[in-house]
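User: Can you help me understand a structure? I only have the sequence.
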Amino acid sequence: MKFKDEDEAVRMANATPFGLVTGLWTRDGSRQMRLAKRIQAGQIFINNYGAGGGVELPFGGYKASGYGREKGFEALYGFTQLKTVAMKHG
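Assistant: Let's start by predicting it. Here is the structure, written out as tokens:
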């Protein structure tokens, strides 16, 4: 899809109730990271596209594409609860 500037590209990418996976193509390394930070998607593929990663890469979406993450340490956080214990000895 054509766009006139980065702001329009981000608006187009985020103009959906879903945000599971997206792909973007650009040779500009700084643009890659700028857009990746602004696009609302759980996984962003740069200059490629497809189901990615093994069990170490979290998978999940934004908006209506789901809640939480599967795979990786991020998935374990949904099954744990943080607790701080402060103790003084003697």
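Now, to help you interpret it: Residues 29-38 form the longest helix (10 residues). The two ends are 68 Å apart (CA to CA). Let me know which part you'd like to focus on.
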